[in-house]
């Protein structure tokens, strides 16, 4: 299967704020993107679906995602630390730009996640 191009698509913003449209698994056709996954046990995804949210940015219970137990899993913290990723910055950007603006920005930058210190 040929590799897909990175394009802006608000439907490819994952519930946690990652941009699936720039993810290698999505681009190589090995993943449909978070919003289209079937049978996922991701607690963030389940919460957003139950609440009718397009992402954690819609949640007003926690202004800061670091307060949410579903969002701050240890494995995600380790990965973010090692690769200097800032998933919380993704949620802040969605709140600031809107989901389409965020998708536009991430597609233009060809990034699936914001690096620490970028915003």
Protein model, in words:
With 119 residues, the protein is mainly α. The protein has one domain (10-109). The protein is built from 4 helices and no strands. The termini are far apart. The mean pLDDT is 87. Helices cover 39% and strands 0% of the residues. The longest helix has 23 residues, at 87-109.
Number of strands: 0
Q: Which secondary-structure class do the elements indicate?
A: mainly alpha
Provide the β-strand percentage band. under 5%
Helix content: 25-40%
> How many separate structural domains?
1
The major pleated sheet works out as: none
Whole-angstrom Rg = 13 Å
Spans of at least 5 consecutive residues with low confidence: none
The overall pLDDT average reads 87
Quote the distance from N terminus to C terminus.
35 Å
Structural shape: globular
The H/E string reads HHHH
- Tally the helices: what do you get? 4
Q: Brief description of this entry?
A:
The chain has 119 residues and is mainly alpha-helical. It contains four helices and no strands.
Task: List the main descriptive attributes of the protein structure presented here.
single chain; 119 residues; mainly alpha; 0% strand
Compile the SSE list and pairings.
Elements: H1 24-27, H2 43-51, H3 74-83, H4 87-109
């Amino acid at each position: 299967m040929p590799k897909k191009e990175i394009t802006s698509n608000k439907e490819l913003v994952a519930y946690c704020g990652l941009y699936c449209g720039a993810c290698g698994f999505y681009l190589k056709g090995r993943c449909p993107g978070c919003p289209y996954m079937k049978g996922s046990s991701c607690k963030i995804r389940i919460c957003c679906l139950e609440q009718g949210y397009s992402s954690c940015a819609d949640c007003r219970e926690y202004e800061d995602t670091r307060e949410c137990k579903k969002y701050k899993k240890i494995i995600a913290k380790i990965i973010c630390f090692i690769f200097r990723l800032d998933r919380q910055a993704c949620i802040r950007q969605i709140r600031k730009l809107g989901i389409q603006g965020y998708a536009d920005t991430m597609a233009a930058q060809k990034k699936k996640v914001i690096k620490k210190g970028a915003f």
